[in-house]
Amino acid sequence: xxxxxxxxxxxxxxxxxxxxxxxxxxxxxxxxxxxxxGSNAGAAAxxxxxxxxxxxxxxxxxxxxxxxxxENVAPLIADLGKSYSHILASATSNGKNILPxxxxxxxxxxxxxxxxxxxxxxxxxPIYAGNAIAxxxxxxxVKVITVRSTGFDPVAAEGGSAAVEAVSGPSDAGxxxxxxxxxxxxxxxxxxxxxxxxxxxxxMQNGDNFKHLYALADKLGAAVGASRAAVDAGFVPNDMQxxxxxxxxxxxxxxxxxxSGAIQHLAGMKDSKVIVAINKDEEAPIFQVAxxxxxxxxxxxxxxxxxLV
Length: 309
Ligand SMILES: Cc1cc2nc3c(=O)[nH]c(=O)nc-3n(C[C@H](O)[C@H](O)[C@H](O)COP(=O)(O)OP(=O)(O)OC[C@H]3O[C@@H](n4cnc5c(N)ncnc54)[C@H](O)[C@@H]3O)c2cc1C
What we know:
Blueprint: E1 2-6, H1 17-28, E2 31-38, H2 42-49, E3 56-61, H3 70-81, E4 86-90, H4 93-106, E5 110-114, E6 116-119, E7 122-127, E8 132-137, E9 143-147, E10 163-166, E11 196-200, H5 210-220, E12 223-226, H6 228-232, E13 253-257, H7 263-266, E14 274-279, H8 286-289, E15 292-295, H9 298-308
Parallel strand pairs: 1-2, 1-4, 2-3, 3-10, 4-9, 5-9, 11-12, 11-13, 13-14, 14-15
Antiparallel strand pairs: 6-7, 7-8
Helix pairs in contact: 3-4, 5-9
The chain binds flavin-adenine dinucleotide.
């Protein structure tokens, strides 16, 4: 049994989610190969070769793969992936963009967002926004799987010494081209990788009031998230949204401020290790999942908390 893990990377560095995906592959068992498809991706390939438990790194270096356009990368993965028992990618925007095309090309069902591995052909995945967990058994010859990072602790980034092999595949499919990207720059940790997340909801009242959360987050070394209501109201950009239609986070500590705790929000954060809720309504559903709840006006509680940190 040999498993192909698709590296999530920026050509110059590996994304941390790759380590969680390798962890899922290790649970399945067997040899683990990592594919780095990119352009001038030597640094990412080198990093992949150091991941604990990886036996081989395949590097497909081609200008057509530079920006992970699914139209170009999926045919390469489908081509290489035919000889593997499993193809795994992180359930990030990239993974979710690329892997369904791979599954279609291989004529198999995709198994999406697994959170645990029961055996080589049986996996657990959340359904109904995390309100039920399905156990899925697959008889597909090649199992095409996206992995929810929060379900698997990352393997060590160092310690391995995998062989690196160059591979090639179909070039530019000519169906799409990369126009540009606007990357949000922040000195705070990335939301899905942060150990502490402070999130604000509609209770924040406006975007300016988020400064209270930024001040607290900076003292805690935390990322700042938001509910969809806060995003829809234009308080903060939508890359900060946590929840069913936002980002899935599972930090050591999640502080929900002025968030009621709708199921769609809980779907994105309820696996956090410790949940703290600050809400002036003691009946707010967020208190049902909170380990620590503070019934208080956030405009008093948050500045006070910040002073204490
Ligand atoms: C298909 C679908 C997908 C969705 N996806 C998401 C998603 O990904 N993420 C998400 O978050 N939501 C999502 N939603 C929306 C979700 O249903 C809720 O509407 C949303 O989460 C509510 O956000 P909120 O808790 O900030 O606002 P509200 O529900 O309005 O809650 C505001 C809270 O702030 C408290 N508050 C107000 N003032 C203060 C104060 N001064 N001090 C302390 N507390 C105060 C109130 O008591 C209240 O509990 C989705 C909905 C649908 C239908």
